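Feature request, filed as a ticket because there's no other form

It would be nice if the structure record came with a short human-readable summary line next to the tokens. Right now we just get the raw output. Example of a typical job, pasted below so the devs can see what we mean:
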Amino acid sequence: MPDIELLMTDRQPAQVQEELSRRFRLHRYWEIEDHGQWLESYGANIRGLACGGHTPIDGPFIRRFPNLEIIANFGVGYDNIDASAAAAEKVVVTNTPDVLTEEVADTAIGLMIMTVRELSAAERWLRAGNWKSAYPLSPGTLRNKRLGIFGLGRIGEAIARRAEAMGMDIAYHNRTRRTDISYAYCPSLLALAEQSDILMCVAPGGPATHHIIDATILRALGSDGVLINIGRGSTVDETALIEALRNGTIRSAGLDVFENEPHVPEELMVMDHVVLLPHVGSASVHTRNAMGQLKVDNLVNWFENGAPLTPVPETPWPRD
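Raw output as currently delivered:
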């Protein structure tokens, strides 16, 4: 399919770039000096966008490509893409679910343990040469604790299975109650926070969840509560979180995602009772390769067979 032209909007793994370059005529957006002029001259040639999850793809940008057929995103979350605008233009959007579920769930459990048991702080204490006496006992434990999961989809359910095996009680909140599981359902996020010792956010980003974890939710979680976020940084009001951590409204937090990545507020950086990870939930060679291959397969299958492999709910259709 060398006559089909794709635009890669941001840097992606070398495997993806090499595979797409071999199969398509690939343009790299970050190598183009004058984006406006290039879009005027070549926008009509582009039939597919290969997105890395960072560049915003909104309606006006989509409409710069009158012959666009598909937007293939690298990652399960696609809040960087206005999928409704894509649907209005009859453009299919795909993501990379399932292949990263277990890896992200492992990271979530690891981050929870690190945060509750203060393992990062203990390592820093040791490296600083302080092991002349015993490290102070951690105030937190996972024994007989209640885990509240906000967003019980594929990843949330994988986290729940792991936590259940550790003896934790599981409850969850989704927009709608699931009928295929036995975990306790809370009708609101506030109710979930009120009955949880640890609140695990796995929710997607977007307007519906923007700053949904705010000062009210943090107060409901309580002074012994722990917040873990491996979903999207936009779901948490970072200003409210910093204040809650400063004044003891909650005990601690473990964060793999932030509102303005790669910027992390300095106030969080200096807190010893907070664990910070650089958005590494799916960041293993094995899993990123699988995500990249699924992204490539979506594009190839679309142009060869007219059917996306993993379309998002807003754009479920095959090509006419």
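Something like this underneath would help us a lot:
Residues 105 and 159 are 5 Å apart (CA to CA).
The longest helix spans residues 285-305.
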